[in-house]
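Entry 14. Ran structure prediction on the chain below.
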Amino acid sequence: MRPFELQQPKTLPEAIALLGGEGARPMGGGTALMLMMKAGVYRPTRLVSLQKLDLSFIRNSESGGLEIGAMTTLRALEKSEFVESKFPVITRTLRTLSNVRVRSVATVGGALAHADPHMDLPPLLCALGASVVVEGKNSSRTVPVEQIVTGYLETSIGRDELITRLEIPAMGKRRAAYLKCTTRSADDWPAVGVAVALDGDQQTIFVSAAVDRPTRITSSQDIEKMGIDGDLHGSAAYKKHLLRIYLKRAIDEARKPAD
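Output, structure tokens:
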């Protein structure tokens, strides 16, 4: 790992200004970033820690949905009774996301900005119609989560921009489910993931892990047209087979009456 400087700004404008330099990267919990740095994938000369920013919160939005600060840990989200009462599908999903040690440090913003196609939250948030607020030096914009990831470990977020909060619209009468298939332990990276949101007869479906980003499909026929990526979790043919099975299971799961 190459040497780097660590900056710990106390305000959002200060953090954004520090990110403007060459070789700078933001750091939330650092669970994924540190591994990437050790592997030589990322070689930043400056890390900008976001730990001192006031971006850890879970609150009701004016429209009845959720607003979640980018520095909220996945564990805090998982343990929130408020979240479980409004979005139980998020709570269920987080319980098998990696392990407690990782969830206690990893952040919501980092889970989205990292853009690893094996992450569990992004496809579910896409299916729920969630958006993020992205702050830059002189601008603020709201971007659907569906448009954040542009490729493997690539996003539409600028070098000097930060995700500051996640916004999830109210569930209303919708029902949702997220299922994944792991080839080892239940909390391992998935071979495939399928997120479904049902609103009457309307279905919103996103698949992940088998492709390089959360990808919207309309039916099982779309699976046959997709460019499936094989990896250590399974071959392309195996993942395509799994997607057919787990799509049906996820739809059936979403249709189940609420507990």
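The longest strand covers residues 192-199. Will compare against last week's run tomorrow.
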